Amino acid sequence: MIRRNAKAVNLGDLKIGGDAPISIQSMTNTKTVDIEATITQIKELSTAGCEIIRVAVPDSESVNALPEIIQDSPIPVIADIHFDYRLALGAIEAGIDGLRLNPGNIGGFDRVKQVVNASKEAGIPIRVGVNSGSLDEEIAKKYGHSAEAMVASASKHINYLEKLNFTDIIVSLKSSSIMMTLEANQLFAEKYDYPLHIGITEAGSGRAGDIKSAAGIGALLSHGLGDTLRISLTDDPVREVEAGIEILKSFGMRDKGIEIISCPTCGRTEIDLLKLSRDVKAALKGSDLNLTVAVMGCAVNGPGEASQADIGIAGGKGVGLIFKKGEIIKKVSEDELLDELITEIKKMECE
Length: 351
Prior knowledge:
It is an enzyme of class 1 (oxidoreductase). It holds the Pfam family GcpE_C. Helices cover 42% and strands 19% of the residues. It is α/β, with parallel strands linked by helices. The chain folds into 2 domains: 9-250, TIM Barrel, CATH 3.20.20; 259-349, Sulfite Reductase Hemoprotein, domain 1 (2-Layer Sandwich). The strands form 3 sheets. The protein has an 8-stranded parallel beta sheet. Helix 5 (137-143) crosses helix 6 and helix 7 packs parallel to helix 8. The longest helix is centred in the middle third of the chain and has 17 residues, at 206-222. The chain is elongated.
């Protein structure tokens, strides 16, 4: 898989595009004016692996809250602005790292110019965001509800910025339709080299939201598209970050923490594989080791099937095996399997 070579844009001390790793972002669901709650959530998200955070700025009170939030945030902060250019100017003055703003929606070229000039002076990028559900009326009439309409809408906003020689632009084209999202991003990538913020909007909640997000973002990544991403779930934002990390890890694009692989159950399984897998995951939660850990249900074929794992266990009837890189290093009773695995992993921390 060859990743698209996008223009590099700086967001705070983070680079998006170019040869930079794909970054993970989320958005706070607190009221921005509640400074304490917002900072607390940002820190929780950062601990979970979030690298960029977006906060809603719907009014001047939210602008007034930004300086303290920005000061205490461990990751770059983007202000989400709609319609009112004065909020954008206030956010820039407050020290924001980036804007999420569509130039065509803030009323007139003079207002766009003021925001662009302030952004240039502050050295911050602007993300243009197009959702299929909120297309420009004239463009929707011309192209219908389509990927072409999404790209035309993005182009309209980009033209405002390029006329002012502003090119520190990040673009997102999102739909609740996976295929429309994929087509729109492919069409855009043929026309522009700006970095892409990817995601499937309104993906839903729970397992269905996870699966839809993974399918959509997986399709985009497999075509080399994406420089930063957000999983959009109706859920705790921490789950968005955790899902994003797992998707990138599954593509070999993120080396962060422990990856657990486990086999499906079958008639040869003689242990409670589901419980064992959950126990291993719980015991290793929070570890910063970069390891692949296998949990296999068959002592006969397990070590061979998981030979690429750094370490693993395979259960049998009342007994289990500990193995490294497919080589068996220890045989223990079933009730000692989990503890022995953790002991061996702790040894690896010192190696």
